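Example record used in the benchmark description.
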Amino acid sequence: MSRLTEILEFNRSFVQNHEFEAFRTTKFPEKKMVILTCMDTRLVELLPKAMDLKNGDAKIIKSAGAIVAHPFGSIMRSILVAIYSLGAEEVYVIGHHDCGMTSLNSEEVLNQAAARGISSETIRTLENSGINLQRFLTGFHSVSDAVADSVRVIRNHPLLPSDIGVHGLVMNPETGELSIVTRGKEQEGEDSSAIPVHHHPHE
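Model output (structure tokens):
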């Protein structure tokens, strides 16, 4: 059942009571940072609180697993817009332990799609047109490796300015604790250095 009516009723009250006043800010990130993180529900409020972020401090981009799937896809475009149009000076890629993408199985997803009415003809047509559904719908084995891969794509992007620091971290979704996967440039002239984290049993 859709929650649309409930949401719209609440929204009318929110606007009429001027509750938006507490969230007024500009479109420019006050802390000059853009964050790519996972869409996991546990991080919605936890991640900003654990990083001391308030409304207006950062641009936050979300995708399943905090993955940059394509160097010229919408995630990378959003990062570049945050840098060039909105003044971001650092990029943070933040994955988390116990991520659903570690167990994502393409066969299971396609079976679920079939059960929800997606025809085998549709799936065959997609595969015959050159789309690798197995790769598209498969997750990863290690969250820290996935974060490092996303950081690598961003750092090596031909349109990324050389003075932008790109950091990779993993968060504990229960406590909010952050562990560094790779540290980017923090000051002008400082080289990036990789700092491995210990793999969590629930990655």
